Hints:
A: 4 helices, flat, B: 173 residues, mainly alpha
Amino acid sequence: MMFAAAIIAVLIALTLAVARALAGPTAFDRLLAANNIGTSAIMLLALFGFMTGRPEFLDIGITYVLLNMIGTLAVLKFFRYGALGHAQDLDRDPG
Amino acid sequence: MAQVIDLLSWAALLGGGFFYVVGAIGLNRMPDIFTRMHAVSVSETLGVGLMTLGMLLQAGFTLVAVKLIIIVLVMWATGAVATHALARAALHDGEKPLLADATGALVPTDPVSLFPELGVRLATPLQSEVVEEPVENGVPEDAETLAGEGYGAEEEGANPDAEEPDSAGKEGR
């Protein structure tokens, strides 16, 4: 029951984040909203697992945390440099 | 005892849900990208942290609790990094933060006018941009660089220009 309440809260936040992702004037707004949607998905996974008594969903949640971070940084790098990196750059500047 | 834990769990989950929704409302209501980031950081630290605390109380001392702690720690660390990168990319892209002027109205303000040292940083090319320059110059110079680095020392004496792009790249760092 308490998990259901938290799930409803997360779903409301998810809807608002989708609205911002659709409306966002700049790409950065959409990216911020997308990051928040990813976080909401992780919390939904965890809460749903607890609600149904199957916390094994948390393993998927860990994967989503890492994917969320990497996806955000990859899109940011694309917008900053116009490319995700060249082989020569990787030789010289792995950062 | 179980009822006390349930009560604390209820409080943490409801508080977490409250802050999560507050952050999402801020994401829609705030006027520009930087304040929206501020709003989202509320939901990604306090909201996630409190909801995870509520689940931790229900999980007890189990492997599930360890996984929850891993999730929340990674989320706190990477959320800050992603927010920092997002703000930096937005600044470099020319986004102007909305600041109040003398009359109190919100106007897009160039942050360089307030912090001159920020202008120096924004004008200085980043590491990656300095490194990318030989790539933009085209194929022949790249070939010379490769020859100077790898394919034999006898060419360096014959063609002193071959070292030019390489040394420029090192100074850029």
